[in-house]
Here is the input.
Amino acid sequence: MEIFLWMILAFLIFQRLGELALANRNRKWMVERGAKEWGQGHYFLFILLHSSFFVCVIAEFVWTPYVQQPFFYIALIGFFVLQILRIACIRTLGKRWNTRILVLPDEEPIRKGIYRFVKHPNYVIVFFELMVIPVLFHAYLTALIFPFLHLLVLTVRIPAEERALQERM
Here is the structure.
């Protein structure tokens, strides 16, 4: 089981690195079309949060004896569902998906797919990922702390994003 978990962890790290590369390509594409970036001052908080998250998951996984709990399979199903929802967010936004706040002038926010139902679905998905992923690795302290830290960062991020959308024209 531990090898399977290391494979999941490797997948997640490569996924996040791939998403950063995609975000950089999308950022370049949007800037070439006149996009303005907002909230650069708090972006480092996301990098710090997500980097620390992986360090803490690995540390707890390595430093505590692994005992598979009955709710492991529930967490695993939750993990796969969250991955599907994450991909849906990225696909719905297409080249406009980014880890930064970039707004193209004179374009309305996208309101299709999952965005018809939830205004900031990716933030909701990440919140639950920050709980579910550590549970897979029996990193329960990480599962308690990081969703809370994510919410703290969002108290800065979401208002900045809302301002950017309001002032885009």
Q: What stands out?
A: The mean pLDDT is 94. DSSP finds five helices and two strands in the chain. The first strand starts at residue 36 and ends at 38.
